[in-house]
Design a protein that fits this description.
180 residues; 36% strand; four-stranded antiparallel β-sheet; Umud Fragment, subunit A; eight-stranded antiparallel β-sheet; alpha+beta; 12 strands
Length: 180
């Protein structure tokens, strides 16, 4: 009788230890995924409209740029250069070595007109900027709502190390879910 109680207690102890190990493993994996893999962010503001709207919820792939460089057209999260504690969402327009110029709101990269059909006419500004060649180790970003966006035209180039990840999915609101 005593042996069976000890055996039952030992089985329960092993089961609890197994559950604790499973929980600890899940916590460590979740921390690793959030730290190195994905991040959930919320859009604050209208600078990426109509592509992204205020309060949209996004899934950002933080791992992808360890394998490859960001490419023009990618929607990225980045640390705001004047205040690296803030996170911004913008579209990558040009990378190191590219020459960017804006004439009457039309963007050219290396002398070619940027195909930016995602910018609707009422969101297009008519400003001039550049030309400027993007320095090594930097990128140039802009918002899709060109006349309501603070971006590289205002605060300069973005150090590559400030690019956090690529926006992969808008998951909220559900009816507007979209892969990028």
């Amino acid at each position: 009788m005593v042996d069976s109680r000890w055996q039952m207690l030992a089985r329960r102890s092993r089961a609890v230890a197994k559950d604790v190990r499973s929980f600890a493993t899940a916590v460590v994996e979740a921390i690793l995924i959030v730290t190195f893999g994905v991040q959930v962010v919320r859009v604050d503001g209208f600078s990426m409209a109509p592509t992204l709207e205020n309060r949209d919820r996004l899934i950002v792939d933080k791992f992808i740029y360890t394998l490859s460089d960001p490419r023009p057209g990618d929607i990225v999260t980045l640390y705001y250069p004047p205040d690296p504690h803030s996170l911004f969402v913008k579209r990558l327009i040009a990378t190191e070595g590219d020459t960017v110029q804006i004439v009457d709101g039309r963007v050219t990269v290396n002398g070619h007109l940027l195909q930016d059909d995602y910018v609707i006419p009422v969101y297009r500004d008519h400003d001039n900027w550049g030309p400027e060649t993007i320095e090594q180790g930097y990128d140039f970003v802009m918002g899709d709502h060109r006349n309501r966006s603070l971006d590289s035209r205002h605060w300069g180039l973005v150090p590559k190390k400030y690019i956090v990840g690529k926006v992969m999915l808008r998951w909220w609101p559900v009816q507007d879910m979209k892969l990028f």
